[in-house]
Amino acid sequence: MDFATLASQFFIGLSRGMIFFIVSAGLTLIFGVLRITNFAHGALYMVGAFIAYSVSTLFGQGPYGFWLALLVAPIAVMFISLVIERGLLRFIYNRDHLIQMLLTYSLVLIAGDLVKIIWGTEYKSMHIPEALRGSFNLWGASLPWYNAFLLVVGPVVALGLWFFLSQTNLGKICRATATDREMVDVLGINSTKVFAMVFALGGWLAGLGGALIAPTTTISMGMDASIIIYAFLIVVVGGLGNIWGALISSIIMGVGEAFGILFIPGVAIIIPYIIAGVLLILRPSGLLKSAW
C-alpha cells in the first residue's frame, strides 16, 4: 500500500462524492423549499441515466452522443418533474407528511415499471467519450480523465446553485418562500410557481447526476435504491437545505466509501452509514446550520 494507491483512491472517492452531491443537492433544495420528502428523487436519477443511454445510443455512442445526452437527459427529467409537481404534488403540500411519502413512493414503483416497459430489464452501458478516456498521473497517482471531469462539474454546480440562491432575485424569492410562504403570497408572488420551479430544478439535478454516472456503471433497474439512501444521509448529515453542507457531506461519504473498498472490502457497504451515525452523534443538527 503506497502513497500513489492511496492518492488514486482518494481522488476516485472525491469524484464519486461529486455525483452524490449533484443528486443530493436537488433533494435538499426540494425538501428545503417544498418541505416534501421526495422518495421519487432516486427514480428521476435512474430515468436520467436511461435517457442519457438512449440519446447516446441514437448517435452511435460517439462523442457527440455523450455531450448531447448530458444536455438532453437533465432537461427531459426536468420536464417530467414539472409534470409530476403540477399534476400531483401541488395538491398535497398542506397534507400530512405520511401522505406525501406514500405518494412519492408510489411514483418510485410507477417509474420502475415504466423503465421496464420502455427499456427492458437488461443491463445497459454507455461509453465514455474519446476525449475523456484514459488517465493521467497526479502526484504519482493515476487518475482517470472522466473522474477529473466529475471533479470539475461538482464544484461548478455548487457555485451555480450558490449564485442562484444568494445572488439572484429568483433565488431570494425561493429562500423567502421556504421561510414564510404566506408572506410571499401576501406580497403578490405566486408561491405555487416557485414550488414548481424548485421541483423542476431538483429534477434537473437528479437527471444530471444520472447522465454523469451512466458511463461509469451498468444502467439498470434498481440503481435508484442505493442513491436515494445516500442522498437522504447526505442531506441530513450536511444540514437540511444547506448546499455547502451537502457538498462537504458528499465528499466525506465518497472518500469514506472509496477507502472502505480499499481497506475493508467485505464491509465497505456499511461504511457510509457508520460515518453518518458518527457525524450525527457529534453534530445532531448537521455539519452546517440548516439554510431554512
TrEMBL record:
Alphabetized UniProt keyword annotations: Amino-acid transport, Cell membrane, Membrane, Transmembrane, Transmembrane helix, Transport
Pfam families reported for this sequence: BPD_transp_2
Membrane disposition: Multi-pass membrane protein
Transcription regulation in keyword set: no
Subcellular location: Cell membrane
Keyword Nucleotide-binding included in the entry's annotation: no
Chief location: membrane
UniProt xrefs under InterPro entries: ABC_transp_permease, BCAA_transport_permease
TM segment ranges: 6-31, 43-60, 66-89, 101-119, 145-165, 194-215, 227-247, 259-282
Family per record: Belongs to the binding-protein-dependent transport system permease family. LivHM subfamily.
Name of the featured protein: Branched-chain amino acid ABC transporter permease
